[in-house]
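Continuing from yesterday's entry. The apo prediction looked reasonable, so today I'm repeating it with zinc ion included to see how the binding region is handled. Same sequence as before; SMILES copied from the compound registry.
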Amino acid sequence: MQKRWITAVIFCLAVILILAAHLCGRTMAMPAFTFAEEKEVYLTFDDGPSTKVTGSILDTLQEKHVKATFFIVGERVSGREEVLRRIVAEGHTVGVHSETHRYDLIYSSDEAFREDVTACAGVIERCTGVFPHVYRFPGGGRHPSKEAILKELGYEIVWWNAVCGDEEIPNADAETLVTTALSTAANRAHVVLLLHDSASHMATAEALPAIIDHFLENHYTFKTF
Ligand SMILES: [Zn+2]
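Holo prediction written out below.
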């Protein structure tokens, strides 16, 4: 009888010890998870597609195993359908950046804006079968009534917090673009970098490998919208 009682006590102690070890393990594991700060970077390309520049950028992204987001100008897709399909086929995100990129048309009225967004989304959907869910304003900035329309249409609006300077600095070479990207991204944990892939931006394509290497070396995770 006494032997059975001792066995029961030993069994109970063992259960308590196992539970305690399990709970301690969980408690000890939590701080590392809670305090780990994940650094993330979103590469975003506006104004494409173009044939050579977008193609070169896609080659680099493929080589480096990195995904990006491309904000498309609808009327530039004609004749470059294969480029747009390649963007989607290689796992990148495609968003709307207007049909015409003409500020005087796009922003002339809420109705014109809605038509422009719908036209660009239609081009993307007919070409790739994918319906876009992200939007970037041509020229950036805030547009309250247009933001309400985009929300109603189900779009997430994407701005940026770092630039490579390919629009801001006239005729910038690749080295300047790398330096500008790194200095405007600074040490932010969350970077949305603005780049351009229209035909005049070969320097951006040339700068891209070094920009990607910088973020890889600094342990950033590449994300898409
Ligand atoms: Zn643009």
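Comparison notes:
- The longest strand covers residues 39-48.
- Residues 2-35 form the longest helix (34 residues).
Will overlay with the apo model tomorrow.
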